[in-house]
Amino acid sequence: MLKKEQAKAYDVVVVGAGPAGLIAAGRAAELGARVLLVEKMRSAGRKLLITGKGRCNISNDAHQSTYFKNIFPNGKYLKPAFGAFFSKDIIQLLANEGVETTVERGGRIFPTSNSALEVLNALMSWVKKRQVNIIYSSKVEQILVEKNQITGVRIDRNGQSETVSSPAVIICTGGKSYPATGSTGDGYQLAGQLGHSIQPARPALVPLITSGNMAAELQGLSLKNVNASVWIDNKKVKEEFGEMLFAHYGLTGPIILTLSRLVVDALDQKKQVRISIDLKPALDENKLDARLIRDLDANGKKQIENIFKEWLPSKLIPVFLNELQIDGKKQGHQMNSKERRKVMLLMKNLTFDVTDYRGFKEAIITAGGVSTSEIDSKTMQSKLIKNLYFAGEVIDLDANTGGYNLQIAYSTAWLAATSLAKNIIETAEAPKN
């Protein structure tokens, strides 16, 4: 325990120095609060540094309505948070710290430098200017509460237990994805200790594991402009158009990651899942068949394996020939209508049975978390414990790729800090009996 002369009181303790924690700490301090930011790793923002493959997809310039469609399980819950602080606001905050940004395909906003480190340094600069006290290698083990009122936190700091006095806490610990960056579900434990309901955490935006060896044979192959469909118990439930990638274990890439949320939940419910890939989504079966006939007629004396180069990436050709049991050395004019139809159908429906998904080490984000039904959407304050707030991935909110998840972190953190600071001011100004 801290000795009395060592103890220092704060208006708020922010737990976790990721994007949400940095925004929450800086905003609370900006509004006059004395802030302690506690980070269990040796440095801040480790997960931020790997977002966007190290480029940092800061946000998305889409309208709120588009955000709502890309956030689960209830995007509209974030309406007050987005109203308080949205994409233009984080871009302006970073611009004030010298970060130039560029809008790319799909409204994705990146630093022009393509450096996540530049974004982290800017946030750190912004926080430090507001005189936030940051301690590292320190883990909040318990939030102390008396009569439903927060009184402080107990911290393990380099193996020593300390108590810090504070009437308020903002939990910004992230989820469980990329645990090496410090996201190991600590916030769920802290919230659970105080009676909060936790929706089961599971990997989201995660690669999928498939049966058989076809994916392994195609390892490293990237496909663009294809359509992937999810079938659950033989019913088509969703599809995505874009880019995907084959890995030794199965499927990954943008459209697979987007579809994975449904797949993970279905597999957890022991349902049968398969992914169907349409390699030629711009052509219906009749048009595709007509093209195959045209190419076979024009190249009748060529070997079939060479004609396939007109239709597919080279890595797919042996897989197709093997799957369809077609002799690639035959000449084009020797392919009969039955074989041609098999080729056409496989191009429109290359199917993989999904047996599992990769773990939190490879999941971009976490689905599940502290139930939104127990957090006031207008303030981000707990409905169970006064002056306990939540921000970011620790909440049961997750989104598709494209900068949406980071914006959730900034917006909920800004709203939480603003609401908390207002409470502190009102409490301080309230007349004493």
Quick structural overview:
The protein is α+β, with helices and mostly antiparallel strands and 433 residues long. The protein has 13 helices and 21 strands.
Describe the structure.
Pfam families: HI0933_like (PF03486), HI0933_like_1st (PF22780). InterPro entries: BaiN-like (IPR004792), BaiN-like_dom_sf (IPR023166), FAD/NAD-bd_sf (IPR036188), RsdA/BaiN/AoA(So)-like_dom (IPR055178), RsdA/BaiN/AoA(So)_Rossmann (IPR057661). It comes from Sunxiuqinia dokdonensis. There is one protein chain. With 433 residues, the chain is an alpha+beta fold. It folds into two domains: 255 residues, FAD/NAD(P)-binding domain, CATH 3.50.50.60; 152 residues, no CATH class. Helices cover 33% and strands 25% of the residues. It is built from 13 helices and 21 strands. The strands form six sheets. It has a six-stranded antiparallel beta barrel. Strands 7-2-1-11-20 form a five-stranded parallel β-sheet, with helices on both faces. It has a three-stranded antiparallel β-sheet with strand order 3-6-5. Helix 1 runs parallel beside helix 5, helix 1 runs parallel beside helix 13 and helix 9 crosses helix 12. It is elongated and about 95 Å long. The two termini are 33 Å apart. 45% of the residues are buried. The N terminus is likely disordered.
